[in-house]
Amino acid sequence: MTTPRPGLRERKKQATREALREAALRLAVEHGPDQVRVEDIAEAAGVSPRTYNNYFASREQAIVSAVTADREARIAAAVAARPAEVRLADAVTEAVVEQYTNTGEREHKALLLITTQTALRDAFLDTTAGIEPPLTAVIAERLDDAEADTARVLAASVAAAVRIALEGWLRPARNAEVAESRAAGGLVVPSGSLPDRLRAALAPLAPAFDAAEQHTQS
Fold first, then answer.
1. What is the mean pLDDT of residues 122-142?
2. Are 89 and 209 in contact, with CB atoms under 8 Å apart?
3. Comparing C-alpha atoms, which of 208, 172, 207 is closest to residue 190?
4. Is 43 exposed, middle or buried (0-12, 13-18, 19+ CB in 10 A)?
5. What is the mean pLDDT of residues 76-93?
6. What's the gap between Cα 169 and its chain centre?
7. What is d(CA 177, CA 160) in angstroms, rounded to the nearest whole number?
């Protein structure tokens, strides 16, 4: 299936969104998240605050978007790219793990910034809900579109599982580490292996994926 090229209007919107999120992240790194205003982000991106509000509901959302941009679409695309003979549960799991863990130095530094503030962490976790719409479409296509409700339930379950895995991974440090964490501005120390946490959270969904595939094939 060939994806149509976005029109000029859509490309301009994408460019504006990218400029805003890049400006938000740069200013947050340079001055600290608390010192960044929506007006500052808009000015740095060359747009009005009103235009900014058409794209992001908060500065936290814009900062986080610089890290998570298009991740949901990439997960869906990765699932769609897997051969049909690959088990759907495996295709989804590997796509999620790949897109959440194969990050560059820039994304890694941004994630460290996100761990310093509860509002940023919450905004980061909220992005998992975006997994559902594109993944629903891909799963429905894999199930021959006959199981649209099933596809939506499965995709929503994946989004919930990913959030749970991230919440566990970003759980604040405990005991003796708490004082040091607070002294560092509320830094949350990621705990354990993120790929392992993602796979463990998604594993209970495998029987449901298998049942849906078997129903389609029968």
1. 94
2. yes
3. 172
4. middle
5. 95
6. 14
7. 28
Amino acid letter for position 44:
A
Helix, strand, coil shares of the chain, percent, nearest 5, are 75, 0, 25
Structure tokens at 76: 């869906």
Measured between alpha carbons, how far is 34 from 41 in angstroms, rounded to an integer?
Answer: 13
What token pair was written down for 46? 């060359």
Q: Which residues contact 116 (CB under 8 A, 6 or more apart)?
A: 33, 184, 185, 186, 187, 188
CB within 8 A of 15, min separation 6: which ones? none
Residues 6+ apart with CB under 8 A from 64: 114, 120, 123, 124, 127
Structure tokens, 116? 């310093």
- Token pair belonging to 45: 């991106």
152 closest CA partner among 169, 166, 165, 139? 139
**pLDDT, tens only, 162-218:** 999 999 988 764 444 444 444 445 556 677 788 999 999 999 999 999 999 988 776
Token representation of residue 73:
């679409």
Q: Tell me how long the chain is.
A: 218
DSSP, residue by residue, 31-57: H-GGG--HHHHHHHHTS-HHHHHTT-S
Nearest to 97 by CA among 206, 201, 199: 199
